[in-house]
Design goal:
By secondary structure, the protein is mainly α. The chain is built from three helices and no strands. The chain has a domain of 76 residues. 36% of the residues lie in helices and 0% in strands. The longest helix is centred in the last third of the chain and has 32 residues.
Length: 185
Amino acid sequence: MHEQPSGGTGAQHPPEPPASGSSLPGFPPLSAYPPPLPADPALYPADPTIPSSNWYPPPPAVPPSYPYPLPPGYPGQPGGYPYPLAMMPTAAPAFPYPYAPPDPNGGMAIAALILGIVSIVFAWTIVCSIPFAIVGIVMGELGRQSAPKRAMATWGIALSIAGILLSLAWIALQVAFVYAISPPS
């Protein structure tokens, strides 16, 4: 039987590193490099000294005690620590902040704008354009009662009217095309 070197499957071992003082092929010998220079002590200050205890300012005065009793500590704790002033529980406000009432006709203005856009996009179909435009005009008039959405409702009405005009122009173009192809007899 043929014995293989350690590693099991004929694995190649890496070469041994060169001995100290020798060099790798293509590199100068290690002795060609000069040794590092010692650090210049003038560049580095001496170790800083720790200031004496009289260097530090005195501690601040103890704040006055709280005008209310301290809360009890956790079970097993000697004494309780007071809450910071920012975390002290306070009484709830007498009246909560009021919410703004929802705009009752704001949705009508949005719907008028969407229906006006749809009536223009589908102006080439009579089935979609004209009914959507009529409903858009009605919703636009209802949406104009909403002060913040009045401009949106006006644009919805204008686009719905433009959708009706484009549909009528498309119908006239189709009628003219049919008469051009086959004149009446």
